[in-house]
Amino acid sequence: MPSREDQIMTVLSGDLQPLEDIHACMVVRKNLEGIAPITEDFKKEIVEIWGILKKTMDEFFGVIARYSEFGLNKVYFELGKYDVMFFILPATDTALVAIIPALANRGLLEVEMENARRKIIHIIESG
């Protein structure tokens, strides 16, 4: 049986990463600790702004850590030409994160992200 980390990586690389508008996705907490495909698998556009994205995401994890106990479920922010979507794993400081173009169909991607989050929660709980 594959490890939980391998199963989560399969969700990221098999369900989300192939979608055209997902430029990068990962399951991480502050300082980007967690599970992510190698950055070479991210869309090339992201590489040029990765430093500022990482810094901004780290700041948002502080908000997530403070408010997840109150039911904070999703957080979004726009950074230039990109939206960053955080789908928080319940009662944790960890989130499923995706970086998408600002003009992408966010509604469709929210459905895909929610499906992936449910799969990840199931993997974690069944482990």
Provide an overview of this structure.
The protein starts with a helix and ends with a helix. A five-stranded antiparallel β-sheet has the order 2-1-5-4-3. It is of the alpha+beta class. Helix content is 44%, strand content 23%. The chain has a single domain (4-126), classed as Beta-Lactamase (2-Layer Sandwich), CATH 3.30.450.30. It has helices at 4-16, 44-47, 50-67, 106-126, and strands spanning 24-29, 33-35, 74-79, 82-88, 95-101. The mean pLDDT is 88. The protein has four helices and five strands.
What distinguishing features does this structure have?
single chain; alpha+beta; Beta-Lactamase; 5 strands
Q: Using only CA atoms, what is the Rg? A: 14 Å
What order do the SSEs take from the amino end to the carboxyl end, as H and E? HEEHHEEEH
* Regions with little confidence, pLDDT below 50 for 5+ residues: none
State the fourth-level CATH superfamily: Dynein light chain 2a, cytoplasmic
Number of separate domains = 1
Straight-line N-to-C gap: 11 Å
- How is the largest sheet built, in terms of strand order? 2-1-5-4-3
DSSP strand content: 15-25%
Q: How many β-strand stretches?
A: 5
The name of the CATH topology is Beta-Lactamase
Helix content: 40-55%
Q: What does the main sheet amount to?
A: 5 strands, antiparallel
Q: Any idea what the CATH architecture is?
A: 2-Layer Sandwich
Q: Structural class, from secondary structure content?
A: alpha+beta
What overall geometry do the principal axes of the alpha carbons give?
globular
**Top CATH class:** Alpha Beta
Total number of helices? 4
